Each structure stands twice: as C-alpha cells, then as structure tokens.
Amino acid sequence: MNRTVVVAGAGVGGLSVADRLRAILPERDRIVLVDRSFDGTLGLSLLWVLRGWRNTDEVRVRPTAAALPGVEFVAATIESIDTAGRGVRTDIAGVIGYDALVIALGAELDTAKVPGLAEALASDVAGQFYTLDGAARLHDLVQDLKRGRVVVLVGGVPFKCPAAPFEAALLIADQLGDRHSSGAVWIDTFTPDPLPMPVAGPEVGKALVGMLESRGVGFHPGKTVTAVDAAARTLRFADGGSESFDLLAVVPPHAPTAAVVSTELALTGWIPVDPATLATTASGVWAIGDTTVLTLPNGKPLPKAAVFAKSEAEVVAYGVARHLGYEVPELAFTGEGACYVEVGGHEAAKGAGNFLNPPAPSVTLHEPSREFHEEKAAEEREWIARWNTVTP
C-alpha cells in the first residue's frame, strides 16, 4: 500500500524532514514537499549580508528535486489545511491528500502590526534584516549614515533567532568603524523583553548586555513600541515614552501564515506541539520550527531558531514512519541547542545548552572567539553546498 506524506514548507525544518523521510521510507511511499518559493537562505547568513561580508547571491539556497531524488517538489502557496479531511489546499496544485503531514511553514513578517512601520520601511527611514533584500538594503543605509542615532528595535515577541537584534547592533557598530568609535554615530537597542534572550536565563542575558555596553551599544529593556512616525523619525512606546532616531533597524513583528491560522490547531496563533515528539493534537500531523510553540518546563516557549528545526526534523521523520507502521526507533527531542552571537571583527560568542532542562534551561555563554565565528561559517557552507548541489 502506497502512502503520501506531505511536508508543508521548504525552509530548514521542511528540507531536513523531507531529506530524512526519503532515507527511511520505502520508495513506494510518496513524499511531497510544498512551498511557494524554493528560494531561501539560512538566517545566520542574513546578518553577514547586513555587515557586508556576503552578497545576496552567495547565500541563496535554491533546492531542486535533483538535490533530493524521490521527493516531489510542488511550487504553490498553501491556502488552507484540513486536518479532518486530511488535505492541503493550494492555489496551483489543488488539494493534495495525505496520510501524514508535517507543517513547517515558518513565520511571516507582519509590518502592519505596528502603525507607521511599513511606511518607514518603504521610505528608507527604517530597514530590516530578516530578508535577503532587506539585509542588503540596510547595509547600504548604514554605510550612507555619517552621523546620528541608530536604533535597533524589536517590534514584537516572539521573533526568529533571539540573539539577532543584538548581533545586528554589534555588526552595525563594526561596520560603522570610526564613525561609531568617535561618537559621530551612536547605537541603542530597544526590546519588550527584560534581557536579551530571556529564555536562556538571567546570567546569559546580563552577559549579553555587558557585551553590548562594552562596545558602546545601549540597551533599553521593557520597551514595547506602539507606533513609528517616519516623518518625525520618532518611536512611541506603550509606557508613554518616545525616542528619536536617524536610522531604524527593526525586527518586524512575526505572525503565523494564513494556512496555519486556517487549522484548528493554532488557537493561539502558533501550533502547540508535544515537547518530546512534536506531534500536534491532530492524528498524523506534526509541526516543527518557527510555526510552533513548544512550552519548556519553566513555562516559556522554545526559541524560534534553525538549530532546533533541524533536530526536530529527525524526531518527526521517525515519528511519521512509526505512524505509517514501520519498525523504526522512537526518538525524542532533547532540547539541546546552540547559537552564535556575532560581536564584530569576525568573532562570535556561543551560547549552548539544554533548553528542556527542568526547571529551567541550562545554557552557558562562551566568550567571543574567531573559532566560534568559523564554526558558524562552516554551518553555512555545509547547508549551501547540500542544497545547491545535485545529489548522485
């Protein structure tokens, strides 16, 4: 009997799970990978595009069926998901039925959530570094700034890669060079959170604040933005305060895709999953990566980061195979993960530990080094080579 597994989304999680599924399922089982565009990048590359260490063509990941033989690639937008009827509705390929479904649709940028933000981005008063074109444009805006204030703003939580806004601030300082060290341009960060990467614990957060301040970057916690005035170059906050800027580098609010919202699974927006198996409340349906909310023992959500999507993919692939009746090992997500924090000068700090550790994540932040930067670069090279090369 032939079965069909649909993988919705071809980001890090989707590609990883499709790859592993094809390795463990028999050839007679159909694996369908659906995405509106098979053209992406690793999130870590975006910061290097922002800094000017990469150009957009160098970091593009364009997987094709030739890179993953035995998997059907369907280029279409997923409009809705019917878990009761076991079907995925697309705009081009119609309804694709499934016996098992993996939802890996990531998160979208929702600039409309903050009044005035879209206008600020359109007028180059602000820039963002969560897309390739955005990161490249923000690099140019930073390069053109001769004097004034750069504000790096977290527009809402949760967002992808909790370290990214603070890395961006440090890399912008590095790019500015003498303009920053002389005081001609100064940088401040604003976030709704009490500390950077709060899920990793107060010690990690305080260490990151120390890294910012030692490099001349200000840190302002507990600041929830309510509006951006592009003409006046002013931010307004929920506490009644306001701040001026000359250039705004923003993490736009994130939102689940319309297809995720269409399911009965995402009552709070993101899809809750079992912390060990990544299973949803619907039979035969799993979700991984940024589209999920995985609650840790301390009640906080697992950070949205590619490192977790990759390890979740391994667990889910075996879970799908067991669901289809195959005798394969039963794996569990361990919560182990690491992320790098670029500080400039081709050096990076590294935070590593177990995020499922009870009662709270056990994470250590290691001091910046060139070795950690090179580790991060090796991850980038490996991922790009894997998906931009034809598999024998």
UniProtKB/TrEMBL annotation:
Pfam families membership: Pyr_redox_2
* Top-level taxon in the UniProt lineage: Bacteria
SUPFAM superfamilies given in the database record: FAD/NAD(P)-binding domain
InterPro entries (alphabetical): FAD/NAD-bd_sf, FAD/NAD-binding_dom, SQRD
Q: Which GO terms describe its molecular function?
A: oxidoreductase activity
Annotated FAD/NAD(P)-binding domain ranges read: 4-309
Transmembrane intervals: none
The protein here is known as NAD(P)/FAD-dependent oxidoreductase
Organism field: Mycobacterium simiae
